[in-house]
Amino acid sequence: MTFRLEARGLACERDDRWLFRDLDLGVGPGDVVRIEGPNGSGKTSLLKLLAGQLPLQAGELHWNGVSLRRARPAFLANLLYLGHAPGIKPALNALENLAWYQALHGESGSHRARLAALEVLGLAGFEEVPAAQLSAGQQRRIALARLTLSPRLLWILDEPFTAIDRQGVAALEDALWNHAAAGGAVLLTTHHELHARGALTRVDLSKAGD
Amino acid sequence: MQPRTSVAGLGPALLATLRRDLTVALRRRGDLVNPPAFFALVITLFPLGISPVPEQLAAIAPGLLWVAALLATQLSLDALFRSDHEDGSLEQLLLAPQPLAALVLAKVAVHWLLTGLPLALMAPLLGLLLSLPSGSYGVLAASLALGSATLGLIGAIGAALTVGLARGSVLLSLLVLPLTIPVLIFGSGAVQAAAMGGDVAPALAMLGAQLALALMLAPWAIAGALRISIHG
């Protein structure tokens, strides 16, 4: 059984101006889709629309051929969305943050798996430090640890490279392509140049409003 | 990897949310002290401001205690979803493959445990200060425990509606306070009845009924309000 997120005729309007119109988009196994466009071109809005976070102004969204409105539980069970804010609670340490996300997704998860995921992201030794005392990049790395901890088919990542250092960027890029190679799909926005190691679909929003 | 059709484990998700919110709140103790401190301060001012005559104070004590407790519960309401909204975890909560109404109920339960329950437990002590007639202390605590849970549920709807606003706290009070009037009436009514040696059962039953109704309806309203505020 495979999966597919299909968008047809999406549109987004802000202050009487179309950010994009009649946008068609399909994501399936092995796809890496990069949403491009200058600041304010509606990249984040598009990702939020696709994640079912914003009400559709036009067009339709289908998950495996079923309207997203009805397929929402199944869709959310396969989705990992990382937004602008990393979603990391400053008062909790990395392990506690990750454990909550795992429980939220119906996984019990093991302490050892969480330690391992944090170590991969270079956070060994910071597991028990409250996130408030970590840097922005380290907080984002905690959020990125969810990618390895919770296997989800569809990743929707809004500027995942923000505040990440060069080595971290390379490792994350590897993770994206490996995820696609393993049959997953990635939808992301970034201003960072991706080194294509597979089929990279580009969606350019800079002229999509005309 | 195979596509999943659903996710199990609402129980663990609820427990984890309860534990998380409790941990977060207990690590920021400063905020926890606010409602009880406000409650205690206001009540200690009344004998000084009105009259130290026990008979006079006893007559108005039920109302004073209830009004002060009601206002104290409003103090921490604004923070219920705000910090989650700011750090992005509210967005993740909305995207979790679990019923949102159940998850927000866990958050409100933690809020009650850390504000409503302490207020109910300390109220008898403050009742002593206002020379509340003996025999009504138990009813005071019970009515506040029941009533503050309803207040928390109602308040959470307002907090969810105003979470996206920069200065939502004034609007929040305006939205929520009118809805809390029935709770106030029956709550102070129960204590009044107890103080005068009357039957407290009807007023307490009404408080229980209000809580039952709020438990049934408020989680859906809170979830809906959060969706409106976050997804605009």
Sequence-ordered SSE layout with sheet pairings:
The complex is a heterodimer of chains A (210) and B (232).
Chain A: E1 5-14, E2 17-27, E3 32-36, H1 43-50, E4 60-63, E5 66-67, H2 68-77, E6 79-82, H3 94-104, H4 111-120, H5 136-149, E7 154-158, H6 166-181, E8 185-189, E9 200-204
Parallel strand pairs in A: 3-8, 3-9, 6-7, 7-8
Antiparallel strand pairs in A: 1-2, 1-4, 4-5
Chain B: H1 10-27, H2 29-49, H3 54-75, H4 79-87, H5 89-95, H6 100-129, H7 137-162, H8 169-176, H9 181-195, H10 201-231
Can you tell me about this structure?
The complex is a heterodimer of chains A (210) and B (232). Chain A is of the alpha/beta class and 210 residues long. Chain A is 33% helix and 24% strand. Chain A has helices at residues 43-50, 68-77, 94-104, 111-120, 136-149, 166-181, and strands spanning 5-14, 17-27, 32-36, 60-63, 66-67, 79-82, 154-158, 185-189, 200-204. Chain A has a five-stranded parallel beta sheet with strand order 6-7-8-3-9, sandwiched between helices. In chain A, strands 2-1-4-5 form a four-stranded antiparallel beta sheet, covered by helices on one side. In chain A, helix 3 packs across helix 4 (111-120) and helix 3 (94-104) packs parallel to helix 5 (136-149). The mean pLDDT of chain A is 87. By secondary structure, chain B is mainly alpha-helical. Chain B has one domain. In chain B, helix 3 packs antiparallel against helix 9 (181-195), helix 7 (137-162) crosses helix 8 (169-176) and helix 7 (137-162) packs antiparallel against helix 9. The longest helix of chain B has 31 residues, at 201-231. The mean pLDDT of chain B is 92. Chain A binds chain B through residues 1-3, 48, 51, 53-55, 64, 73-74, 76-79, 81, 83-92, 96, 99-101, 103-108, 130, 151, 153, 182-184, and chain B through 1-10, 12-13, 15-17, 20, 23-24, 27-28, 83-84, 86-89, 91-98, 103, 230-232.
CATH architecture of the largest domain in chain A: 3-Layer(aba) Sandwich
Order of helices and strands of chain B: HHHHHHHHHH
Mean pLDDT of chain B: 92
Largest sheet of chain B: none
Shape field of chain B: elongated
- Tally of separate helices of chain B: 10
Query: What spatial order of strands do you see in the largest sheet of chain A?
Result: 6-7-8-3-9
The averaged pLDDT of chain A comes out at: 87
Shape of chain A: globular
Tell me the span between the first and last alpha carbons of chain B: 34 Å
Q: The biggest beta sheet of chain A, please?
A: 5 strands, parallel
Total separate domains of chain A: 2
Cα gyration radius of chain A (Å): 17 Å
Structurally, the number of domains of chain B stands at: 1
| Proportion in β-strands of chain B | under 5%
- Structural class per helix/strand content of chain B? mainly alpha
Give the class of chain A from helix and strand content and strand pairing.
alpha/beta
- Uncertain spans of chain B: none
